[in-house]
Recover the amino acids of this structure.
């Protein structure tokens, strides 16, 4: 009458206690395992016996017969209508249900004989039976009989309207003029190239003067693809065999300036913060605009009928050693006349400042990026370039030198997914295995590891491609630096390290660099070095990175 049919807890605290966590003592239960305790194809839970509640930790105390240990876990599924001792799998452990819980002579954690323990470890109980096992109908199941699913396998109804096909598309590029001359697409591409050469008056047909040796030429065929892998156009290029030129007679200086990758990343970081649009333009047959100062004669191209005549070059044809330098001199002088100045830190970085704003142009051979806050100045620059060169307007920047550029309100994202996919195809990485890290932990490669590779050509090609992939993948910069030290004499262990890098890239193909729009333009740098970390010569390795705000630029 004092408690008025209330429990002491409810009388003391003014609310009824929560009984939802109480479970039937001795019932069968399934405890969720940690990810390190099972593999991908093994069960994710283990059958145990419920023996109470944790005192120091919040959770259920469950005894596992396989591990012979007590587990405390909050992730438990209970079969409260089935006692643990009634399951047929564990009749070897307990003699009867009553003795198991009441007889004090039976140990709570029995020590099983070797034979029983082996059976348990090799054949753990299934996790989710179709129906709870009845104590009466339970019968021992042979340990060597695999469990087969009784589920009816059928195609989902929402897939009945679709058909899946698997195709392998191969892009073939001819290696000779005879092979290309039989294809109308390549014939059209060669005619367009000849028309462009005639339009720029690249050569004059003359008789070969005495004591003069003409250089040869050949056709080079390339299929241009977009960032998604589709074919953009068929391109045929007439290339002079510049390797037959002699220094001091046919050419002198050959060095030509191109934009540095750091400048490309810096320009994207600035454009993202300033909300500038990035435009891309391309110069058609750029090298043909360069002025040739030397006297060079060339054999007529294959398919060009001109008996007993040679071509006296007036323009720098592709393949000539001085062609890149002549083209840069022509383009830079044209821009300077329009009011641009080249940066003293990167001579391929041109800038023009006027009262209306600023216009920036970044040149890499014949590809250029144009941006700034003066829209009328950008339009005037594009019109000016069309007057002097044969330009191709590619619109907003999306694909530049194998770099994929995407833009949204949060900034620019730079990646090399297509380049990485082509690299994996070249290496023959067609299986589905990937790696979580580009290099094994504490792996130290030395020049004497493994056996020598018979043909190191593929190794050098893959490592060279990986070096360019570091433009947007700083996470592989160190390991690519390591494997590039063995280019002269690669061995089997070094090639295995390269394959591991490729498998890591396959699992992270769409990783790249993000240039945030809400970032600042404060330059900060970080560097670090180990001490005598190289196992061969005990040299130290230094690493560094520079940020423009939150954007990595170097």
């Amino acid at each position: 009458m004092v408690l008025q049919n209330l429990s002491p807890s409810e009388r003391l605290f003014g609310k009824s206690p929560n009984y939802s966590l109480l479970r039937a003592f001795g019932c069968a239960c399934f405890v969720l395992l940690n990810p390190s305790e099972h593999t991908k194809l093994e069960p994710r839970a283990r059958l145990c016996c419920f023996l109470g509640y944790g005192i120091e930790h919040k959770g259920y105390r469950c005894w596992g017969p396989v591990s012979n240990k007590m587990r405390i876990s909050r992730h438990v599924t209970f079969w409260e209508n089935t006692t643990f001792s009634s399951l047929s799998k564990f009749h070897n452990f307990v003699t009867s249900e009553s003795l198991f819980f009441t007889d004090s002579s039976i140990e709570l954690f029995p020590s099983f004989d070797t034979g029983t323990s082996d059976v348990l470890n090799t054949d753990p109980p299934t996790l989710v039976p179709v129906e709870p096992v009845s104590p009466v109908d339970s019968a021992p199941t042979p340990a060597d009989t695999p469990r087969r699913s009784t589920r009816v396998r059928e195609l989902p109804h929402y897939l009945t309207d679709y058909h899946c096909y698997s195709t392998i598309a191969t892009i073939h590029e001819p290696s000779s003029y005879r092979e290309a001359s039989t294809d109308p697409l390549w014939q059209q591409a060669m005619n367009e190239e000849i028309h462009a050469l005639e339009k720029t008056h690249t050569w004059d047909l003359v008789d070969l003067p005495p004591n003069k040796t003409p250089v040869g030429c050949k056709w080079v065929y390339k299929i241009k693809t977009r960032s998604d892998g589709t074919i953009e156009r068929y391109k045929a290029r007439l290339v002079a065999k510049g390797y037959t030129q002699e220094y001091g007679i046919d050419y002198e200086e050959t060095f030509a300036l191109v934009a540095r990758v750091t400048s490309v990343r810096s320009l994207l970081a600035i454009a993202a913060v300033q909300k500038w649009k990035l435009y891309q333009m391309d110069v058609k047959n750029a090298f043909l605009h360069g002025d040739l100062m030397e006297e060079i004669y060339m054999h007529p191209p294959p398919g060009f009928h001109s008996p007993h005549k040679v071509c006296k070059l007036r323009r720098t044809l592709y393949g000539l050693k001085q062609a890149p330098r002549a083209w840069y001199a022509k383009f830079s002088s044209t821009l300077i006349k329009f009011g641009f100045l080249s940066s003293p830190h990167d001579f391929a970085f041109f800038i023009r400042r006027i009262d209306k704003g600023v216009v920036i142009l970044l040149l890499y051979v014949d590809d250029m990026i144009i941006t700034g806050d003066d829209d009328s100045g950008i339009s005037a620059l594009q019109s000016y370039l069309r007057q002097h060169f044969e330009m191709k307007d590619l619109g907003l920047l999306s694909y530049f030198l194998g770099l994929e550029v995407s833009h949204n309100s949060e900034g620019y994202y730079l990646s090399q997914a297509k380049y990485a996919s082509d690299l994996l195809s070249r290496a023959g990485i067609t299986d589905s295995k990937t790696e979580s890290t580009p290099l094994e932990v504490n792996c130290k490669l030395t020049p004497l590891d493994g056996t020598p590779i018979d043909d190191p050509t593929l190794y050098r090609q893959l490592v060279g491609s990986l070096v360019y992939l570091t433009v947007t993948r700083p996470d592989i910069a160190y390991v690519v630096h390591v494997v590039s030290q063995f280019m002269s004499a690669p061995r089997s262990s070094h090639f295995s390290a390269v394959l591991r890098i490729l498998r890591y890239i396959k699992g992270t193909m769409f990783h790249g660099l993000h240039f945030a729009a809400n970032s600042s333009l404060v330059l900060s740098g970080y560097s670090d070095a180990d001490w005598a970390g190289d196992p061969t010569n005990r040299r130290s390795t230094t690493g560094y990175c520079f940020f423009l705000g939150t954007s990595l630029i170097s």
